[in-house]
User: Fold these one by one.
Assistant:
Number 1:
Amino acid sequence: MKRSFFVRARWDDEAKVFYSDSDIDGFHIEAATVEEFEALMLEVAPELILSNHYNASELADTPLKDLVPAILWQRPDVATSRL
């Protein structure tokens, strides 16, 4: 059972937003600032992991400590990402 997932914020210079690059199924967010991106990520990512990466029997039969995912968040260097 996969317990580690990654999230990166990428800068779209044309749209002027940070967008997600992730291996979490269904995870696609955009935000104008890294702070907004991070807040959205922390709200949405855990729920998507539980609903899109585990089936009902895994959720029922797995101890809670083994269900809690690790989200590897790579915060961009804002100064260089907007160049």
Note: The first strand starts at residue 4 and ends at 12.
Number 2:
Amino acid sequence: GPELAIDGNPSTIWHTSWEPEAPLPHHLILDLRKPVRVRGLTYLPRQDMTNGRIARFELYATVVGRPYGAPLASGQWPNDAQLKTIRLDEPVEARFLKLVALSEAQGRPFASAAEVDVLVDK
């Protein structure tokens, strides 16, 4: 389940359904419980294998009662097990962050995450 992407344990993973396969894109929504000033996000791919590693991504943010607007960030990550970081040019106030997986590193219809963490203003 999605809670495994925020449990602080890189050995556990969130993974999309593989039977039946669900087509891309996939997303993971983080509820920050209250609006905070977000500076970015880190994504740790699964460490045991490449299956589901996010390649192309978009990051969105919103507050309660508002739809997601344009992506705050987008790009493509290399197919490796290293921690990935999205840093925003300017912080944004958000309660919800949505990480969208547009493609998977090996071209399969999956997405996974060992850990996802939010970078906030202190």
Note: The chain has no helices and seven strands.
Number 3:
Amino acid sequence: MRISRLSEPDSPSVPYAGRLMFTQSWEDPACDLAALRPRPGETIFAIISGCDNVFGFLLADPARVIAVDLNPAQCHLFELKRAAFLRLSHAEMLVLLGVRAGAARRQLYERLRADLSAAAVGFWDAHAQWFDLGLLTQGGFERYYAWLRALLRVVIGRRRLERLFTLPQEAQRDFYEHEWDTLRWRALVRIACSKYVLGRRLDPSWFAHAEVASFGAHFARLVEHVVVDLPARSNYFLAQLLLGRYMDENGVPEYLREEHFETIGGRLNRIMPMTADVCEAVENLTPRSIDCFALSNVFEYSPRELFDRTREALIRAARPGARFALRNLLASRRLADDPAFVVDAELSRKLRDADRGFIYSRFEAATLANSSV
């Protein structure tokens, strides 16, 4: 399977100059599934990003998953993970991605090259050292987390970070208030999560439309929520942030679990990957052809007029009763502002609060209004 393109890979509109920004998906799939309620035989539109949730959607037995990303590097990651399902055992895939220790990661990659496009081969050949370092830690976002984790080990302490994952949930608030929430922590989050530092470590385009007065205070509240209110032991997102690894092979995304390996591998041909801007991709969809839209926070980086244009295209592409999941990080891009969408406010708040990925400030679970079909 080759990835179709609606945009030229060297176009100036390609984000991050084509850098690989995500090797993992940071949207909690449980929240997407609760919002979208995909049924067997339906068609799902999703953002590729780190690929985890795109592969995970296959467990819902869809007819198709239309997977889109404007960044060619994310599409190269999709090709690599797809080839791993095709050519490797489950144990070998875990070694390739760095979930398990292993010295033969480059040899495992060599077995996948024939299934990759020439562009993907060129990309991975140029970054073969990432396999040695543990591929899942090598995206731009994951490297920012590694830098932040090194600072946390100084400010909080490695042993305290490890101990959080041994505590019963009812003990987490006391842990946060007495061992985490110090003056040094508050200074760290104010600096390390400032707009300036985030722009330098990640990409300034992420924050061009931000509507938050204090980045540090905003992210401090989100960290307090995930450390205090959500069970740390079962939060693989938090483990990746604070420890740089999964706690064990039971605490991994659904697409990496051994019991799902054959099911996903047998349904890979249902994914239709595409390198394209989301607006362009949606505008090219057949009218009334999509049941579920998993949109992440892709409109975070869009000017308002592009979001409005894409929203109109979503309405045309959606089947009657279509469901939508949309996140906001720092910029306000709301489906609720359009009467064509019915947002379940109670469910949306519940899913925002339950999101183990915790970095998003808003979650919208919506359906297409009857008047729009």
Note: Strands lie at 4-5, 43-47, 64-69, 271-275, 290-294, 318-328, 341-343, 362-368.
